[in-house]
Amino acid sequence: MNFPGKRAFWWYLVLTALWVACAFTLYALIMEPGAVSAISAGLMVIVSLFVLSIQFRNDLSLGEDRLELRFGPLTKRIPYFEIRSITRTRNPISSTATSLDRVAIELYSGGMYLVSARDNDRLVEELHLRRKKALRGD
Fold this sequence. Notes:
Layout: E1 2-4, H1 9-31, H2 35-56, E2 58-62, E3 66-71, E4 74-79, E5 83-89, E6 102-107, E7 112-115, H3 120-136
Antiparallel strand pairs: 1-2, 2-3, 3-4, 5-6, 6-7
């Protein structure tokens, strides 16, 4: 079962600001070639590519025995039995979510992931069911 990531309006503002900054640094490189402008433009292009990958690869999949988070070039697989709690939150801390309407997934190991799906209610419901099943050993 696949859940596409939710994107809030602020995410598109971040994308726009980043692309404007990238265009500005590329323009500066053309107008004033040099090491500093080349390094700045290179870094902006790398950051832009990373953020662009988040735009196109941002989803969660519920498999038989684990949750798989995909966020840009990053992938995290979490077995259901490692999940300690699943709660809704609007925590603004930096995370693998492009919306503040989030689900907090706390692990027994102490880790925590904040994710956001277009249908968070269904995601929470499915995660609870699969976690219960994994803890029972089914």
